[in-house]
């Protein structure tokens, strides 16, 4: 299998990353360590160079465009505003085992300053477009983050689709942790995108993710964890890790009524096709 979205390069794993990564590899699980800023992108590359079956993605997460105190999954962390340097990220993108640009995208959930909301969203769109330019420049796919507000989940996804149509990625990419409108799935598929499913599908009570999964062709499904966040059932409340991606495969198999081994095989093959890797 492959966990196509892991943050083993984050501080949550600073004391035991070696154990966590080796446990996944011993279970025949590869992973993409995904950057969210310069420092974590550099760390992702370090881990990819150190371990077999570990690859890297480099990019600037939209919440890193502000100074924020963020609360996620029981954890609190502070972001420090980073200016996007095209040249710096292009240099990182050329490093060994870098297979994607991201994560990048739109995040309206963490826009807390209503007085400055329009300006922040405009900046997010501009920086997202620059990531698309970079991906096209270096010939890599995108790992896309999108998150709407509690009051309006869909607006960010409609905006994302518009941005992608204005500046089309040549190598497409993956919509990581898609929780957007079911009616937009076909449009993203028509543009060539894959959908990443993670632990949320094991505890989603809305039924939306099941509908998204059932509308996604087998050859466009990817598995991920987003560790240390979004821990699947039955480990809710604990730190997530790449090895738990097998629980995501189990849930996908249950929903699609197919053997779990087939899910593992097809999602691994999909990841190999999108990211041009061999695991």
Can you walk through the features of this model?
- This protein has 279 residues and is of the alpha/beta class.
- The chain has a single domain, classed as TIM Barrel, CATH 3.20.20.140.
- It is built from 9 helices and 10 strands.
- The strands form 2 sheets. It has an 8-stranded parallel β-sheet with strand order 1-2-3-6-7-8-9-10. Strands 4-5 form a two-stranded antiparallel ribbon.
- The relative contact order is 0.14.
Low-pLDDT stretches: none
| Computed Rg | 17 Å
Number of strands: 10
Strand order of the largest sheet: 1-2-3-6-7-8-9-10
Briefly summarize what is shown:
Helix content is 39%, strand content 19%. The protein is α/β, with parallel strands linked by helices and 279 residues long.
List the helices and strands and how they pair.
Elements: E1 2-6, H1 17-26, E2 30-34, H2 38-50, E3 54-58, E4 68-72, E5 75-79, H3 86-93, E6 98-107, H4 117-138, E7 142-147, H5 154-166, E8 173-176, H6 185-190, E9 194-197, H7 208-215, E10 221-223, H8 245-256, H9 260-275
Parallel strand pairs: 1-2, 2-3, 3-6, 6-7, 7-8, 8-9, 9-10
Antiparallel strand pairs: 4-5
Helix pairs in contact: 3-4, 8-9
Key features?
279 residues, alpha/beta, TIM Barrel, 39% helix
């Amino acid at each position: 299998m492959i966990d196509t979205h892991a943050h083993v390069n984050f501080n949550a794993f600073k004391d035991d990353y070696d154990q966590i990564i080796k446990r996944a590899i011993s279970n025949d699980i590869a992973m993409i360590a995904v950057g969210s800023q310069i420092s974590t992108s550099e760390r992702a590359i370090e881990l990819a160079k150190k371990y077999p079956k570990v690859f890297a993605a480099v990019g600037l997460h939209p919440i890193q465009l502000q100074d924020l105190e963020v609360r996620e999954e029981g954890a609190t962390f502070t972001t420090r505003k980073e200016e996007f340097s095209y040249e710096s990220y292009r240099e990182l993108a050329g490093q060994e085992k870098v297979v994607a640009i991201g994560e990048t995208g739109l995040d309206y959930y963490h826009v807390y300053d209503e007085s400055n909301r329009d300006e922040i969203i405009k900046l997010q769109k501009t920086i997202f477009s620059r990531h698309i330019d970079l991906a096209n420049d270096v010939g890599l796919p995108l790992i896309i983050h999108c998150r709407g507000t509690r009051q309006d989940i869909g607006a960010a996804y409609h905006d994302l689709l518009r941005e992608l149509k204005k500046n089309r990625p040549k190598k497409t990419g993956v919509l990581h942790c898609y929780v957007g409108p079911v009616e937009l799935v076909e449009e993203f598929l028509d543009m060539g995108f894959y959908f990443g499913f993670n632990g949320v599908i094991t505890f989603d009570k809305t039924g939306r993710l099941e509908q998204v999964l059932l509308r996604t062709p087998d050859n466009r499904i990817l598995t991920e964890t987003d560790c240390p966040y979004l821990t699947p059932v039955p480990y809710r409340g604990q730190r997530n890790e790449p090895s738990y991606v097998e629980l995501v495969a189990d849930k996908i198999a249950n929903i699609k009524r197919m053997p779990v081994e087939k899910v593992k095989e097809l999602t691994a093959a999909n990841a190999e096709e999108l990211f041009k890797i061999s695991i």
